[in-house]
Amino acid sequence: MTSLLLPRSMPSPLSTAPPFFSPRTHIPPHIYTHPAAILLEMCTSMKELHQFLPLIIKNGLYNEHLFQTKLVSLFCKYRSLNDAVKVFEPIESKIDPLYHTLLRGYVQQSSLDAALRFFCRMKYENVMPVVYNFAYLLKACADSFDAGRGKEIHAQLIVNGFSSNLFSMTSVMNLYAKCRLIHEAYKMFERMPERDLVCWNTVLGGFSQNRMPKRVLELVILMQEEGHSPDMVTVVSILPTSADIRNSKIGKSIHGYVMRRGLESYVNVATALLDMYAKCGLIGTARRVFDGMDSRTVVSWNSLIDGYAQSGDSEEAINVFQKMLDEGLKPSNVTIMGTLHACGDLGDLRNGRFLHELVDQLGLGSDVSVMNSLISMYCKCRRVDVAYELFHKLEGKTLVSWNAIILGCAQNGRVIEAIDLFCKMQQHNMVPDSFTLVSVITAVAELSVLRQANWIYGLAIRMYLDKNVFVMTAIVDMYAKCGAVNKARKLFDMMDERHVTTWNAMIDGYGTHGFGKEAVELFDEMCQNGSINPNDVTFLCIISACSHSGLVKEGQHYYTIMKEVYGIEPSMDHYGAMVDLLGRAGRVEEAWDFVQCMPVEPGINVFGAMLGACKIHKNVDLGERVADKLFSLEPDDGGYHVLLANIYALASMWDKVAKVRTMMEKKGIRKTPGCSTVDLKNEVHTFYSGNTSHPQSKKIYAYLETLIDRIKMAGYIPDTSSIHDVEDDVQEQLLNTHSEKIAIAFGLLNTSPGTTIHIRKNLRVCGDCHNATKYISLVTKREIVVRDMHRFHHFKNGTCSCKDYW
To answer: What's this model's pTM, rounded to 2 decimal places?
Structure first.
C-alpha cells in the first residue's frame, strides 16, 4: 500500500511533517471538536477510515499528534499493522502515546518476538513505559505459554516501579497461571497489599484451569470471608471444579447462588451450568438448562453435544448436532470432534462420512485435533484402512495421532500393525505416554504371545509406568489373556492402587481360564473391601465366570443382587450371560423361559447363547425355533448358521445340514476358516485346517500321523459325528488336519521336552480336538495351553482345566 491511498494530485504527508512539532507540543482545544476528529471517533471500519483520511489531509490535520495517534490506533484496531507502521515511522517528533498504541498493535497482530523488539526500541528511544505496556506483553507471553520471557517482563515491571500496582501484578498472576506455574501465581497473590475481585478471579481461574478443584473451593470461601461477593466471572471459573470432582451437590449450590444473584440470563454462566451438569452425569438437568437459555453460543451447543456423547447417549448427541445445523449455526472444530466421538461410539459410518465431508467444507483439514478425531471414528467403525490413509497423509502428527491409530489397529485385530506402528513412532522420536502403552498392551493381549507380554512389561518398568494404575490394569489383563493368569494375580496383588477396571480384569481373567471359584472369591473380596463398588462390567465378568465353571446358583445370586443391592439395570450382555449360564448347565428349558420373560426384545447375543446351549445338549426342536428368531435379526456372523448345521449333524439330519449350507451360499455367508497360531523363536507361525504351505508341512503331517496312533493306543477314539458322505478313513483324515492339531504337532516338534506349548485358536475348540489334546498331553508329558475365541483350556496329564465343561 503506497501513500495510504491518497489522491495522486496530493503530496504524501508521510515525508512532510514540519520539524517544529515535539512531544511536549500542546494540542489546540479546537482540534478535539473538529469534524474530522469527530468522524474518527465514530469510525467503524477500514473502509470508512480510508474515506475520512483525505478530509484529514485536506484540512491540514495529518501532522497533529491527536490525529496521528488516532490513525495508528484505528489501523491497529482494524488489523492493518503495516499501515499503522507507515503512519508511525515518518513522524519525526513522536509522542509517547504513539509508541504505546503501536506496541499494543504488535502484541495483538504480530509475533511475540516482534512485540518485544519494539518494546526494546522504546527503551532505546527513551520512551517512559506505562503499566499497560507490561500488561500487553505479559498477556502475549501467557497466550504463547512463554514463561521464560514472561519472567523477563516481570523483572522489567519491577525495575520500572510497578511491583505494587494491582493491575500489573494481576497480569503477572495470569501469566504464571496460564503457564501452569500456579504456585508462582499464588506467591504473587499472597504478596499483594490489596486484592480486588479481578485479582481473586484470576487466581481462582488459574487453580481451576490447572485442575486443582479443592484449592479453588477453599479460596472461594476465603474470598467471601474477605468481603468479596462472587460475580459472573467467579461463577464461570468455579463451576468446572464441581465437574472435575463430579460433585453435583456443590454445582447445585452454585446454581442456587446464580439464581439469587440474577446471573442465569448470561449465556456464559448458563453454558457453564449445563456443562457442569453434563459432566456430573445429570444430562437431563443439563438439557433443561440448555432449553431454558434465551440465547446460545456455539460453546453451549458443544457442551450439550459432548455431554450426550460422554453419557453414552450418542444418538441424541447426533440429533442435537443436526438441530444446530438446522438453526444455521456454523460448527466449530470442537463441535465436529464431539459429534465424531458420538459417531464412533455408535459405529455410525454414514454420519461419520458426512462429518468428514463437512470438515473439508469448513477448511478444518489442517486441524490436527479434528483429524485425530476422524482417525479414531474410522477405527471405531472398523474402517482402519481409511483411518490409516488419513494418518499417513497427516502433517504434524502428534502423540494423540499415533495413539489413535495404534489403538485402532489393536482393537480391530491388526495387532502386528499396531506393534509395528509403536516401533515406528519411537523411530520418529515421539515419546510414548501411558495411553500409548495401554494401546500396545491391548494388541499384545490379543496376540496372546507370552514373550511379547514380558517385553512390554519390561518396557513399562523402564518407562517408570509400572506404578500407573491404567498401565498396570492393562498388563494384568494382558497376562491373563496370554495364559499366565497366576502372573496376572501376582501383579494384581502388588498394585498399591486399583480401580474397578483392575478388579474386572482379574475376575474376567479367572473366568476365561475356568477358575470360577477363584473369580467368586475375588468378587467377594472386592465387595468386602468396600472402597470400590462393582459396576455393570464387574457383574458381566462374574456371571460369565460362573457360566464357564458351571456355578449356576452363584451366577443367579449375582444377577439378583446386581439390581436389588447395587441398582444396576441388566443390559443385553447380562441377559446373554444368564442364558449361557443356564443353557451350558443343561437347564435349556429354563434358559428359554428366561428369554421369553425378558422385559426387552432379545438381541442377537441372547439368541446366540441359546442356540449354543441347544447344540451342546442336542436339542434340535428348540434349536430350530431359536434359529428362526436369530436369523430374523440378520446377524453378520456366519458362525450361527454353522452352529445350526452342527446341531443337525449331531442328530444325523444331513438333509437339513445341506439346506443350511445352501442358505449360506444364497446369502453369501462363508464359514470362517479355522486358524491356529504358535509363537516360536521370535516368530508367530499360522496354520489353517488342511493347509500344506508351511515349510515343515511334510514333517508335521508325518509326526501327526504317528502321534494319532500313539493316542489311539492310549484310548483316544475320533469323533466323526459331524462329518458325512465320506469314507471312514477320510473322516479321520479330515479330523486330523484341523488347525489346532497341526499347530500342536509343530510345537511338539520344535520345542524341547517339558516346554509348555501355547496355541491361539480363532474359533471355538471342537469336541474331537479337545479330546485329542487331552490324550496328547498325556502321552507326551507336555502341558498345552489353548486359547480359543471364548476361553482358555489348560491340558495336562490327560485332563483339561475346563473339566469338559465349555
So the answer is: 0.73
